[in-house]
């Protein structure tokens, strides 16, 4: 069943007709995503970590993160792709095996060290991705995050394109230059990368329609929806503490 769901998820990555993923953070939000008609569900590590009482950056014990993914998988009938940061210290075979045990059909894997924020050598990351691919076979859709746009002196588009090509050669299904939001830069990168590209939707990013025109194949929302939902809840709780109705 996981292989079929991975194949279905992989097929949704169509340049010009992007897969839209409003990232979920628990079973309830995943159910909401599915009920809204989305054909796949993605988790976001930062949001899940906060819900579980931890900070982002692999501070969540891996067993708790995987259990959270399992709960999301259990409540939806569509493929689930899990944000696994850089693997939580697991070797590639164990990471692939434990992720597949949750029923997930895909994963995000990033190329900076969550603890130091430093970029990982691209050859080292490519070897890591290749080992995950070898262990999982076609049962996982691997989204290789490229962090050059969010770290100091990341190297800009040239470095991002070089990493993207290397990761696709290593077996990644999609590349994710997180932090890239300038319309002209997105178009240029998509044009130079022979594979599906994932863009993070955030304030200031091009519209979904424009991202489609630029040839983007996947759009994620990261922890933005959870952050907004949490802020709304904080406001309601504040109203209660002040003796006001939270529903006004």
UniProtKB/TrEMBL annotation:
Cited PANTHER family: CARBOXYPHOSPHONOENOLPYRUVATE PHOSPHONOMUTASE-LIKE PROTEIN (AFU_ORTHOLOGUE AFUA_5G07230), PHOSPHOENOLPYRUVATE CARBOXYLASE
Source organism: Nonomuraea ferruginea
SUPFAM superfamilies documented for this protein: Phosphoenolpyruvate/pyruvate domain
Keyword Lyase on entry: yes
Record bears the keyword Lyase: yes
Signal peptide as annotated in the record: none
Record-given protein name: Isocitrate lyase/phosphoenolpyruvate mutase family protein
GO-annotated molecular function: lyase activity
Pfam families documented for this protein: PEP_mutase (PF13714)
Keywords assigned: Lyase
